[in-house]
């Protein structure tokens, strides 16, 4: 709803009231209509201010309403009503003006923003476009190039940038509503006619066609099949038409997006990201009952790929860091790399690099004086155990001990310490200062406070933290295993890395499985597999009674570790090169391999690649839910979208399974398992069967079929 009062004698003050972000629900839209009527019919009122309750202007349309039939007045006429008012209307923007919130502000005749306010049109992240006139008013106000940037990226703009762009008229450090009221008094006698953005012509640009063409090309490349970014460009292009025609085009494009599965997927992802913050543990401990401990000083051990990124992420979050490394050359290189990452990051954010927040050490001693340690040494259990023993002896009481292991047993590490309750996994994703995901792994003895502290520290670093149980590979890497396996089997059966990657990239992954493996390094998985014991000789294609593909191991034996060695599943122009080219050597190698093992290459189509790779991955997701390692499908989906480049417009693997239809997924898995009975990951999981028998409930209802999360080792 909205509240109304008259202030300073002649200013009608309308306050949007819908905590926590004053989203434009039906009641709020109706409130705006009613309160505008009140202000306009009150003869004492000469001008109007619209603000939001509790220091937040407006977070946009109420996204929860999108899943049911729209009620109440539509936002477009509400904003038109504000713009066409005969009395000047001023938006007092504090906190955020996002989506429909900014569109409402654009309907006002003036905009005053607090210096800390953020403005933006993030609809593209919800699979939509700014469909309440935003795609038409913004380019008229700030020009096509700037509007295209804001609308297609959905990024938030600071008040200072908004002022520069002409998006707001004034920025203040004082009480924004008071300033807006003063401003409203000063323009009370002026006609708002010349301030109605819908009447502005679209600003001239010398080469608009080239601008649209360039942006469209970029957007299509980045969209990975998402419809919204392309529709955003098309909508802004319509701003060059008369306003009414542009609005009609905006409506048409919005109507297509609004009912699309992509919009549903992206809106699901929005709420899923928030749902994972409400974690719980098998003991019943919960996010809202457990207070995290503030981390002021942390130590990072091992300054390779991950340790460097983790150190940067901590420093940028305001934490003092001791970065420790035993290898002298690595330490020197890390110092340089971390400094330049901090400098680049600071430059991007327009602040000074916090180089004084980090110091370096070649020994463990400084661990005695930190609140939390993150270990990031090689993925080697014996080595990690030794590090945890040392830490346990050195650290002051209460220090949290975390491991960045990709999938080793957190309980085993905890058992090396005197304080197993303070041990958790903090599994970052490379590059650790960029990727938004953090898996927080609780062991059987981790305390709720340790989990809460790691989750909160993740948030402080700008990550979405997901609490998961302890098992081999946790959630993300455990699901990756059957996905990779299927890709290898497909090569054995006749596919090429290029074809498999092309299918997965057309689906929307940023990189196909083989390009991704080349980037991460084939040796990483090889080491883990070797530690587990590799089959050899005649049994090379069988491991523990099941089908096994030794292709990855054979490549590593040839020194083909991927990009880093210039050869992997592809060839590169040099070690460290990034442009993947098909390698005739590999073709030859695959043919020889097939001959050696009596395999006959067959034609494999697009559908088989997608189904075998993705359904095997999803099937493991169901197992993870069944085992209670993830608390719900949202957790898995957030992990896959933020950590493994699953396309956001497909919601995540579990959401996608529901979209495809659980019955179909089950049938196809049954079919493939019949064809390949020696591949257990294709055997449909019981939970999937149970859900199908229960009528394939929507993903939001799956939790009702799950046990409590638990550790499984
Ligand atoms: C605002 C934030 C930046 C705040 O962040 P933070 O403080 O970190 O808090 P959060 O944890 O994120 O959020 C707190 C809490 O609030 C919930 N929430 C936040 N925003 C919204 C929202 N907009 N709606 C609902 N709920 C919201 C959030 O979920 C949390 O609650 P919890 O889940 O219970 O924990 C941050 O929250 C943020 O970024 N929010 C989203 C901002 C955003 O994306 N806004 C854009 C919304 S979409 C929009 O505005 C589009 C429009 O306005 C278009 C309207 C046009 C409608 C026209 C329909 C036409 C249909 C066409 C059919 C035509 C048919 C025909 O013609 O034929
Ligand atoms: N590389 C990746 O993409 C990811 C790796 N991880 C995990 O992070 C950990 C580290 O991986 P990377 O950074 O890739 O390895 P890396 O090989 O790049 O770096 C490891 C570093 O640890 C140092 N080190 C070894 N023993 C040490 C000790 N006792 N004390 C201090 N330093 C020591 C090494 O000298 C090396 O610099 C592993 O557990 C890995 O599984 C997790 C997520 C992603």
TrEMBL record:
Any one GO CC term of the record: peroxisome
Pathway given in the UniProt record: Lipid metabolism; fatty acid beta-oxidation
UniProt domain 3-hydroxyacyl-CoA dehydrogenase NAD binding: residue ranges: 298-470
Record's subcellular location: Peroxisome
Entry EC number(s): 1.1.1.35, 4.2.1.17, 5.3.3.8
Keywords: Fatty acid metabolism, Isomerase, Lipid metabolism, Lyase, Multifunctional enzyme, NAD, Oxidoreductase, Peroxisome
Keyword Lipid metabolism: yes
Protein name: Peroxisomal bifunctional enzyme
UniProt GO MF annotations: (3S)-3-hydroxyacyl-CoA dehydrogenase (NAD+) activity; delta(3)-delta(2)-enoyl-CoA isomerase activity; enoyl-CoA hydratase activity; NAD+ binding
Assembly notes: Monomer.
């Amino acid at each position: 709803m909205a509240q109304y009062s008259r202030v300073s004698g002649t200013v009608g003050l309308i306050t949007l009231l819908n905590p926590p972000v004053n989203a434009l629900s039906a009641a709020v839209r109706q409130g705006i209509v009613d309160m505008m009527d009140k202000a306009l019919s009150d003869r004492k009122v000469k001008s109007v201010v619209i603000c939001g309750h509790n220091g937040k202007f407006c977070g946009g349309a109420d996204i929860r309403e999108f899943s049911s039939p729209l009620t109440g007045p539509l936002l477009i006429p509400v904003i038109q009503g504000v713009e066409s008012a005969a009395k000047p209307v001023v938006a007092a923007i504090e906190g955020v003006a996002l989506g429909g919130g900014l569109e409402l502000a654009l309907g006002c005749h003036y905009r005053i923003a607090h210096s800390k306010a953020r403005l933006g049109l993030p609809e593209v992240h919800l699979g939509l476009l700014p469909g309440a006139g935003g795609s038409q008013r913004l380019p008229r106000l700030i020009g096509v190039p700037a509007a295209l940037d804001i609308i297609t990226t959905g990024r938030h703009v600071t008040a200072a940038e908004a002022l520069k762009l002409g998006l707001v008229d004034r920025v203040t450090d004082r009480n924004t509503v008071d300033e807006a009221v003063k401003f409203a008094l000063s323009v009370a006698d002026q006609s708002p006619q010349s301030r109605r953005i819908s009447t502005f012509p679209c600003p001239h640009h010398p080469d608009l066609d080239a601008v649209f063409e360039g942006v469209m090309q970029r957007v299509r490349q980045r969209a990975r099949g998402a419809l919204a970014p392309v529709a955003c460009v098309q909508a802004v292009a319509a701003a060059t038409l008369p306003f009414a025609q542009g609005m009609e085009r905006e409506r048409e494009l919005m109507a297509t997006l609004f009912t699309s599965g992509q919009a549903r997927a992206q809106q699901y992802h929005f709420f899923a990201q928030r749902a994972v913050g409400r974690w719980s543990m098998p003991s019943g401990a919960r996010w809202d009952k457990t207070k995290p401990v503030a981390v002021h000083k942390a130590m990072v051990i091992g300054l390779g790929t991950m340790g460097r990124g983790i150190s940067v992420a901590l420093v940028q979050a305001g934490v003092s860091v001791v970065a420790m490394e035993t290898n002298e050359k690595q330490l020197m290189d890390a110092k340089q790399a971390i400094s330049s990452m901090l400098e680049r990051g600071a430059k991007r954010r327009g602040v000074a690099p916090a180089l004084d927040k980090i110091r370096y050490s070649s020994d463990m001693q400084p661990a005695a004086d930190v609140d939390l340690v993150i270990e990031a040494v090689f993925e080697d259990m014996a080595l990690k155990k030794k590090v945890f023993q040392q830490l346990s002896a050195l650290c002051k009481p209460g220090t949290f001990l975390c491991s960045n292991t990709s999938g080793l047993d957190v309980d085993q590490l905890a058992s090396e310490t005197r304080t197993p309750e303070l041990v958790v996994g903090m599994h970052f994703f490379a590059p650790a200062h960029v990727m938004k995901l953090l898996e927080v792994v609780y062991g059987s003895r981790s305390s709720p406070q340790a989990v809460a502290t790691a989750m909160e520290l993740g948030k402080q670093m700008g990550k979405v933290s997901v609490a998961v149980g302890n098992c081999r590979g946790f959630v993300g890497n455990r699901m990756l295993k059957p996905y990779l396996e299927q890709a290898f089997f497909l090569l054995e059966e006749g596919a090429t890395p290029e074809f498999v990657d092309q299918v997965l990239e057309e689906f929307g992954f940023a990189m196909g499985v083989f390009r991704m493996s080349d980037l991460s390094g084939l040796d990483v998985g090889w080491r883990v597999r070797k530690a587990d014991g590799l089959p050899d000789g005649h049994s090379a294609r069988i491991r523990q009674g099941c089908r096994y593909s030794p292709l990855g191991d054979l490549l590593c034996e040839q020194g083909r570790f991927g990009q880093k060695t210039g050869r992997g599943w592809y060839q590169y122009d040099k070690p460290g090169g990034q442009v993947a080219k098909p390698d005739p050597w590999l073709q030859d190698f695959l043919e020889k391999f097939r001959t050696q093992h009596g395999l006959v290459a067959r034609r494999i189509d697009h559908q088989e690649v997608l189904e075998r790779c993705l359904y095997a991955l999803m099937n493991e997701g169901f197992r993870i839910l069944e085992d209670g390692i993830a608390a719900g499908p949202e957790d898995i989906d957030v992990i896959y979208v933020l950590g493994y480049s699953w396309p956001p417009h497909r919601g995540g693997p579990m959401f996608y399974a529901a979209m495809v239809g659980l019955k179909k997924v089950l049938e196809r898995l049954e079919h493939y398992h019949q064809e390949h009975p020696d591949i257990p990951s294709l055997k449909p999981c019981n939970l999937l069967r149970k859900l199908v028998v229960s009528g394939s409930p929507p993903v939001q209802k799956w939790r009702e079929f799950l046990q409590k999360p638990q550790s499984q080792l």
